Amino acid sequence: MSIGLIIAVALIIAASLSASLIPVIIGAVKKRRVIKPVEYFPPRGASPLDIFIQYYGAKADMREIFNPLMLYWAERGFIEIEEDCKRGLKLTKIKDLTRPESDDCFDDGTFALEQQLFSYIFCGSNKVFYTLSALSGFKTLYEKLATAGKAQAKRVTAEKSKGVKIACLLTTFAALVAVIVTVGVAIQNNLMVICIFPFVAIAFPTLIFHLPDENGGLVQGTAVRYMCIPFFLMFGGVPLTVLIYSLPLEVAILFLCAFAVSVVNIFILNSKIDIRSDRQLKYYARICGFKKFLLLAEVEQIEKLVEEDPRYYFNVLPYCYVLKITGKLKPKFDRIALDGPAWYLGELRETLMF
User: Fold this and answer.
1) Are 290 and 42 in contact (CB under 8 A)?
2) Which of 157, 194, 214, 319 sits 20 to 30 Å CA-CA off 88?
């Protein structure tokens, strides 16, 4: 095999990898360089779901949002929480869910999701809900809302990232075709046509993984999704194995490298592209500033805020869950005398936070 062929294929592979890696780096740099103002409070109109979506973007896992929402609802007077040894936490409805008074970072879409969840939990005349005794229907609804929330989180980065992601996918497929053609012409092996099978095997699941459901989210738990793995193994894996064994060792290694880079680009790097608009970066910066304050503030600073507003701790607690910093804040809050909230019956600190 000629040195020229190796160099040509290596350049194609490098260009393909760079095309997917550069947008990831650009998005990360923009998020790192944005000015993060010091924020003592989360945005007044933002629920934990709003913060979750704005902070994590497409990486948000909506299945982790129930506990923060439960605390948020309780602090705003919508529910009361009580410990029940056999059935988990007992949630008692006090009043219907209403939107915050402030529009600061408020989003009608996330509020609609909250209302759906709240209405299902306390449907009709039912005013009590036990977390460990929830029916299977609750799990189905929660998964559906999580999918809808995931789709909404993707829209945080879609304005700037969607076109870039599509361009990177097309570049990856074009690079793989270029490698197939280049190697096939160089070695004059008609069996290279088999490469079309693993090529389609990559393209097909990629299309399915980006196929939206009726809520705009990814299709979850369907037969179409589950058939992707056997489809890939049979339609792509078997022909690929036959081709690799029929090629010279050096050529086989080149093709495997190109194929591996394509898989990395499509299923790993493409999902990490997070390029946000200036407006979204502004929200993200404020959330980062709030998180940074909580992590770096001295105990005296937090204690002063608690003195000014005795409910400060319970106001920020749901957002600490969302930002995954409760463990790091434990030493600070352990040193501050706090009265339990009226809406919780039990040891809140041990049960819910730490």
Assistant:
1) yes
2) 319
Q: What is the pLDDT of residues 192-241, one digit of tens each?
A: 666 666 666 666 656 555 544 444 444 444 455 555 556 666 666 677 77
Cite the beta strand spans of 15-121 per DSSP E: 79-84, 88-93
**Closest Cα partner for 2 from 180, 179, 187?**
187
Angle, helix 312-323 to helix 48-56, in steps of 10 degrees: 40
Task: Please write the tens of the pLDDT for every residue from 171-183.
Answer: 988 898 888 888 8
* Distance (Å, whole) CA 50 – CA 239: 47
**What would the two tokens of residue 53 be?**
């979506």
Phi–psi pair at 89, nearest 5 degrees: -100, 135
Distances (CA, A) of 153 to 48, 69, 70, 157, 159: 13, 16, 20, 8, 12
- Span between the terminal Cα atoms of the chain, in Å: 62
Prediction pTM value: 0.81
Residue ranges of the alpha helices (H) in 57-187?
A: 66-75, 108-121, 136-187
How far apart are the C-alpha atoms of 298 and 336, rounded to whole Å? 12
